[in-house]
């Protein structure tokens, strides 16, 4: 990347800069015409005497042989034409400038990001995410805005200034010299002052980066802030930083405007001399008054461009400082050679043979020796366990084997090939590495599983005609700005690498990989809780409906009867809320938001018609009274409010007041109070809350009547806001599980959830829906960094994605550490079974898990102290035995 | 059974008898009423405990694993309180509890239990009394067992 901003701009936009310059120069005479023509209209066409009429245009006296009115009309249209031309040109220039700036910005961002991907891994320990982000987004943007005017602006402004200067010099060399006399002072003084401003700007940049880093840290460490009550400390730290930025900014303002002040003063100092010296000359008769006036006005013309030139200079300094700072931050030592990332593998053969480590020494960025003279051989077809105490540096052996750390001395070879020379296309495809912490993409389970198979676009995307045209334009713009020419929309999944013929085979393969790491059931459960789009997959929806029928049949069995209460249009469901019973469906969108049902005029109408309004109001009053009695003593914000209460702790005092007012009778209450009370019972579930409310027969019958009315009278505009429970229809707003169950699991039955879950699974399997549920589960969005999965699920997913890549060597760096010993053992056996005859190196914290490995390497303080088979090592007196014993206790 | 009936029931349990009605209501409202069929387990010995149970109806056996197999050490019935040791001391369940007949329980979560103990010293004293009583019982059993050897 170019060290200098101007070299960067010139290298990548020479041609455009020149075109821009030419275009800008063209506008210059047009500007003159805009003054000349009106002047001719007033002086010659309206006020003049002719014919012939003549007009001075751009210094030329053009004469026209025509009558006055046509002459006026001609000049007016000429004026209009110049206005159109001038503004049209300005529009073109602005668009061109904006485009150019955006292209350079885009190129710069791409280069910066590409450099991030080339940072040596240890460098990430030192840079902060917040700083990198603010540099690529914010600072690059400010530099980008400057780039388009980098050459055209000073050329134009300088040209204007020179023209004005030349004009003065021709009029009178002496006055010209006088006008020029003060500029050297400005040219010397101003850059010096500006230098200090630039330094301050640098300091400010650093502070702002630290600020964004601080914010990033607080977001990532939000739990720590709350767990240690450090919010005040953090606020104070933040204030401190802002104070520093504030002080620097004030200093910048002071100096920047001092420069402006000086400049303005100097500008006015020249007229002072003109009046004084020129005045004397005129009085003495050595200069005509006319010449003095012209010179003064010409100097004024110099002042305009000069001021703008100064503004440009300050902007330039600002952009230069930012650019240089950013580039220096993105140029760490030992950057990864870009050729290693872009090169294609030489052949398809992959790696085979032996892993050979010869005298490998690794010294890290802090000059600490992590590995010392490590040497061992192992066949790539075998399984190696690496064990040792926590401080044995065994994890570095894994890093070196996956080429995530490069040996400082010695060689790591696999199948005779030196790992350090292999492109990432080989190391990243033929070797898989899983560490303790894996960062998942904020995407679906499927995308995360397939992440390790997306090296290059494999199959072009199928575009419609319109999309294809858009893609061509997008590609052209990308190439023009040095961006990647790979199509993101293409199918990147390398099916051949996993020997899958098509999507269906790939799906089977993914399910198999999930089973290897024991994640199949988890994904299945995620699938059950997901929704599917029945219009996109009518086959699944149909099958679910069939399964629903079969399940309902089964639920007639006596042993299940108490566990589920199916939806029945003609019966009140006491395990569902009052709102669900009334609507007999799920709200879609905000039309029937449960929190705001009491404000919904249609709902109120239905309630009144069914004689439910007063009853619900009374129920709301009782409910509010009970909530106040139970929860009033709890401190505000207590977790029970959120878990159990119908009323939040903030609203409790309001309800206390309403209940007090209701003493005089509910009818007397204001509409607002009524709405508050009415909003409560909608969430009431008789079987769960056991409050003796909403469980009497007459109330329930009235709700059933209201239910009928609610559906029958539903206005057309609200039809889309509710999806009714219909035995014969798939409910797209409900999860797969709820669709199959078509009812509510009963509250208070200890085994209900488990027993019904098993029954659902059984029914789904019988209807061939297991695959469909898995499909839905694979579409589950894992959240930022996989936050919607448990840490064990994340680890399993990471291992699954490494295994399914079918690497020649699988390196696991204590990758199952979050699991208990039993689950680790089970996972380990399954993974090793799946990798029978293919290389695995597994770094294990727990030495007792090493039983199933053909070779065991024991490390201590960065050295190999023992290696051999389990039989060799599992005896009295070995380091392995010591390790086992020490880990037992 | 409604909340008010549960409150009446809680009042009859020594541990909670001194609590004021609004607290008993809180306890009843925030605990879960669970029905177990005969033969189903409330929890297994060795599980981590997250709740204690009050028997509302029915009977349950308390079983302990011994080298000689499962040993029934007690039978619980209406108004008995069980499962508090695991949540008090953060140790795995010390015994398995099995529904002998159809069993109705109130499940009190660990957080709620601690909150009540912290707020109502009277309840803490009752818990201590209960535990001391059990210790005395255990000691007596031990002596008897030794004498039998």
Overall domain count of chain B: 1
CATH class of chain B: Mainly Beta
Hey, roughly how much beta strand do the residues of chain B contain?
25-35%
CATH topology tier name of the domain at 354-450 and 784-888 in chain A: Rossmann fold
Our count of helices of chain B gives 5
Name the CATH superfamily classification of chain B: Jelly Rolls
Look at the helices and sheets of chain A and give the structural class.
alpha/beta
Written overview of the protein:
The complex is a heterodimer of chains A (889) and B (149). Chain A is α/β, with parallel strands linked by helices and 889 residues long. Chain A is built from 33 helices and 18 strands. A 6-stranded mixed β-sheet of chain A has the order 8-15-16-5-17-18, sandwiched between helices. The two termini of chain A are 56 Å apart. The mean pLDDT of chain A is 87. Chain B has 149 residues and is of the alpha+beta class. Helix content of chain B is 42%, strand content 29%. Chain B is built from 5 helices and 8 strands. Chain B has helices at 3-11, 21-30, 84-89, 110-119, 121-148; strands spanning 32-36, 41-43, 51-57, 60-66, 69-76, 81-82, 96-99, 103-109. Chain B has a 4-stranded antiparallel β-sheet with strand order 1-8-3-6. A 4-stranded antiparallel β-sheet of chain B has the order 2-7-4-5, with no helix packed on it. In chain B, helix 1 crosses helix 2 and helix 4 (110-119) crosses helix 5. Chain B is globular and about 50 Å long. The interface between A and B is medium-sized, with 20 and 22 residues.
Topology:
The complex is a heterodimer of chains A (889) and B (149).
Chain A: H1 5-46, E1 53-57, E2 60-64, H2 68-118, H3 129-147, H4 152-171, H5 173-181, H6 183-220, H7 222-227, H8 231-284, H9 289-329, H10 338-342, E3 354-363, E4 369-379, E5 383-388, H11 394-401, E6 409-414, E7 417-418, H12 424-430, E8 431-434, H13 445-450, E9 454-459, H14 465-480, E10 491-493, H15 503-516, H16 520-528, H17 538-555, H18 558-561, E11 564-566, H19 578-583, E12 585-587, H20 601-609, H21 613-631, H22 639-644, H23 652-662, H24 671-678, H25 686-689, H26 697-712, E13 722-724, H27 736-741, E14 743-745, H28 752-766, H29 770-778, H30 791-803, E15 809-813, H31 821-834, E16 839-844, E17 855-860, E18 863-868, H32 870-873, H33 879-888
Parallel strand pairs in A: 5-16, 5-17, 8-15, 15-16
Antiparallel strand pairs in A: 1-2, 3-4, 3-6, 6-7, 9-10, 11-14, 12-13, 17-18
Chain B: H1 3-11, H2 21-30, E1 32-36, E2 41-43, E3 51-57, E4 60-66, E5 69-76, E6 81-82, H3 84-89, E7 96-99, E8 103-109, H4 110-119, H5 121-148
Antiparallel strand pairs in B: 1-8, 2-7, 3-6, 3-8, 4-5, 4-7
């Amino acid at each position: 990347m170019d060290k200098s901003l101007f070299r960067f701009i010139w290298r990548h936009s020479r041609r455009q800069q020149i075109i821009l310059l030419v275009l800008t120069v063209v506008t210059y005479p047009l500007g003159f015409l805009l003054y000349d023509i009106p002047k001719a209209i007033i002086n010659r066409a309206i006020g003049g005497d002719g014919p012939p009429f003549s007009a001075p245009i751009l210094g030329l006296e053009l004469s026209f042989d025509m009558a006055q009115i046509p002459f006026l009309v001609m000049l007016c249209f000429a004026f209009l034409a110049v206005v159109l031309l001038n503004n049209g040109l300005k529009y073109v220039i602005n668009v061109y400038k904006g485009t150019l700036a955006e292209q350079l910005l885009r190129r710069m961002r791409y280069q910066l990001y590409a450099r991030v991907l080339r940072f040596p891994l240890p460098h990430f320990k030192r840079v902060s995410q917040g700083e990198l982000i603010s540099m690529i987004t914010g600072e690059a943007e400010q530099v980008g805005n400057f780039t388009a005017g980098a050459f055209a602006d000073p050329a134009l402004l300088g040209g204007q200034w020179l023209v004005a200067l030349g004009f003065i010099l021709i009029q009178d060399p002496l006055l010209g010299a006088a006008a020029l006399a003060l500029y050297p002072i400005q040219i010397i003084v101003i850059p010096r002052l500006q230098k200090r401003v630039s330094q301050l700007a640098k300091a400010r940049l650093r502070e702002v980066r630290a600020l964004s880093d601080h914010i990033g840290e607080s977001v990532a460490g939000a739990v720590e802030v709350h767990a240690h009550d450090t919010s005040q400390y953090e606020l104070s730290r933040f204030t401190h930083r802002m104070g520093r930025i504030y002080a620097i900014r004030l200093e910048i303002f002071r100096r920047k405007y001092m420069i402006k002040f000086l400049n303005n003063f100097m500008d006015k100092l020249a007229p002072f001399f003109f009046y004084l010296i020129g005045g004397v000359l005129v009085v003495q008769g050595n200069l005509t008054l006319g010449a003095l006036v012209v010179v003064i006005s010409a100097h004024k013309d110099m002042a305009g461009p000069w001021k703008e030139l100064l503004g440009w200079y300050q902007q330039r300094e600002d952009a230069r400082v930012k650019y240089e700072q950013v580039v220096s931050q993105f140029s760490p030592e030992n950057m990864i050679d870009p050729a290693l990332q872009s090169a294609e593998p030489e052949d398809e053969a992959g790696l085979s043979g032996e892993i050979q480590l010869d005298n490998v020494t690794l010294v890290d960025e802090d000059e600490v020796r992590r590995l010392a003279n490590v040497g061992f051989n192992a066949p790539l077809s075998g399984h190696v366990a690496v064990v040792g105490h926590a401080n044995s540096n065994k994890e570095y052996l894994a890093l070196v084997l996956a080429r995530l750390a490069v040996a400082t001395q010695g060689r790591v070879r696999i199948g005779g090939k030196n790992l350090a020379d292999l492109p990432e296309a080989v190391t990243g495809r033929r070797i898989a590495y899983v560490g303790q912490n894996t960062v998942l993409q904020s995407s679906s389970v499927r995308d995360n599983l397939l992440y390790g198979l997306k090296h290059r676009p494999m199959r072009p995307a199928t575009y419609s005609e319109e999309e294809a045209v858009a893609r061509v334009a997008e590609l052209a713009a990308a190439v023009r700005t040095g961006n990647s020419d790979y199509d993101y929309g293409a199918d990147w999944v390398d099916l051949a690498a996993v020997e899958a013929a098509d999507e269906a085979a790939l799906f089977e393969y993914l399910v198999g990989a999930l089973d290897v790491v024991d994640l199949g059931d988890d994904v299945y459960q995620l699938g059950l809780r997901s929704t599917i789009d029945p219009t996109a997959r009518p086959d699944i929806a149909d099958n679910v409906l069939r399964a629903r029928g079969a399940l309902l049949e089964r639920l007639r069995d006596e042993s299940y009867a108490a566990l589920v209460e199916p939806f029945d249009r003609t019966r009140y469901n006491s395990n569902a809320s009052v709102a669900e019973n009334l609507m007999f469906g799920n709200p879609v969108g905000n039309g029937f938001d449960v929190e705001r049902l009491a404000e919904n005029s249609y709902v109120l109408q239905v309630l009144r018609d069914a004689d439910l309004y007063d009853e619900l109001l009374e129920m709301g009053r009782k409910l509010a009274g009970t909530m106040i009695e139970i929860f009033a003593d709890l401190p505000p914000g207590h977790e029970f409010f959120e878990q159990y209460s119908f009323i939040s702790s903030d609203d409790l005092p309001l309800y206390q007041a309403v209940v007090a007012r209701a003493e005089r009778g509910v009818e007397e209450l204001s509409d607002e109070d009524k709405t508050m009370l009415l909003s409560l019972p909608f969430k009431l579930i008789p079987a769960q809350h056991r409050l003796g409310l909403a469980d009497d027969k007459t109330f329930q019958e009235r709700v059933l009547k209201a239910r009928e009315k609610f559906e029958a009278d539903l206005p057309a505009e609200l039809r889309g806001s509710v999806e009714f429970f219909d035995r014969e229809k798939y409910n797209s707003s409900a999860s797969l599980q709820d669709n199959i169950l078509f009812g509510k699991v009963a509250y208070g039955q200890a085994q209900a959830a488990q027993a019904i879950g098993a029954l659902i699974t059984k029914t789904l399997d019988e209807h061939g829906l297991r695959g469909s549920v898995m499909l839905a589960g694979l579409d589950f969005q894992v959240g930022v960094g996989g936050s919607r999965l448990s840490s064990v699920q994340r680890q399993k997913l990471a291992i699954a994605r490494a295994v399914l890549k079918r690497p020649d060597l699988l390196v696991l760096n204590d990758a199952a550490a979050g699991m208990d010993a039993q689950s680790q053992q089970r996972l380990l056996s399954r993974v090793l079974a799946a990798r029978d005859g293919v290389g695995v190196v597994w770094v294990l914290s727990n030495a007792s898990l090493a039983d199933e490995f053909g070779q065991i390497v024991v490390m201590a303080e960065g050295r190999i102290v023992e290696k051999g088979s389990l039989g060799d090592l599992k005896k009295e007196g070995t380091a392995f035995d010591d390790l086992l014993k020490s880990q037992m206790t | 059974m409604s909340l008010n009936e549960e409150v009446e029931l809680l009042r009859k349990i020594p541990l909670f008898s001194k609590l004021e009605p609004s607290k008993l209501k809180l306890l009843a409202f925030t605990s879960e009423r669970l029905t177990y069929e005969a033969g189903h387990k409330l929890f297994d010995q060795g599980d981590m405990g997250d709740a204690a149970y009050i028997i509302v109806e029915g009977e349950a056996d308390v079983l302990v694993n011994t080298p000689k197999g499962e040993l029934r050490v007690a039978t619980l019935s209406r108004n008995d309180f069980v499962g508090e040791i695991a949540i008090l001391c953060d140790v795995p369940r010390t015994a398995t509890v099995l529904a002998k007949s159809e069993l109705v329980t109130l499940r009190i979560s660990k957080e709620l239990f601690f909150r009540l103990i912290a707020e109502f010293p009277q309840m803490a004293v009752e818990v201590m009394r209960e535990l001391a009583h059990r210790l005395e019982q255990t000691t007596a059993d031990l002596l008897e067992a030794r004498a039998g050897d």
